[in-house]
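Batch manifest, entry 17 of 40.
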Amino acid sequence: MPEPGTHHKKNTLLIIAGPTAIGKTKVSIILARHFNTEIISADSRQFYKELKIGTAAPSADELKSARHHFVGHLSVNDYYNVSKFEVGVLASLKALFETMPLVIMTGGSGLYIDAVCSGIDDLPEVDESLRDKVKSWQREQGIEFLLEKLKQLDPEYYDQVDRTNPKRLMRAIEVCLTTGETYTSLRKNAPKKRDFDIIKIGLNRPRAELFENISLRTEKMIENGLVEEVTSLAHFRGLNALNTVGYKEIFNFLDSRITLSEAVGDIKTNTRRYAKRQLTWFKRDKDIRWFLPEDIEGMIGFITNRLND
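Output type: structure tokens
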């Protein structure tokens, strides 16, 4: 809860955003303990209970330090999307706000954060048989086939989609085939009004320091057993949840396509690219106030002032 003496007028969601390996978990726990509140994860890679080391999921000690929600609550076999996340988080917030006026949400998945803050469009449910068909296209014919299919169905969305993200490609194709309309025409991008205030903080540091953190964290993951974790998940490798940085590269090593050293190098490179994409996404949001991760005092002062506005 806010510090004594504050006059908190409305329930508030505090967003802690930023690129991977910037220290969001540590900062969020410090702030959660200071304001006596709880944390909702908006890291779509940390939703899956089987993925721990490669997603840098909060440790057991960190989970004890502050209560977390939406961490390890799914299996890689579960179908999940941003719409389900929006609905689930809004329900959780309603319950949490009954006992605490401030709740923290942290993560690097910009689309998931945006869904909670301003909503997403009410796109149709997709038939399971169609979903299986589109998955088979991705599995058997690869991302290039998906790109060509999307280009035919919705050239406008094709021009703006992240072409390295098969999940986004498949979702757009599914909607086009389900409705007979373009994905673009169904995305209204009209913000939904929320009944709580939102404060947004972004964490960043000089690029060279961030990249060094990524390198050190990757090496730590290997030391902590990333290869063993990925090996234990080999029978799940066709699932979308495993099509992510840290897992794809180790699968290539296990297939003897590359050496372990090359896999580690690829993880570092691909994580750096991912971090840059995350920063590009978050930098579009002019409501985010940016801080160095170590400037806890500055963050607390900023949050307290905003709560008193």
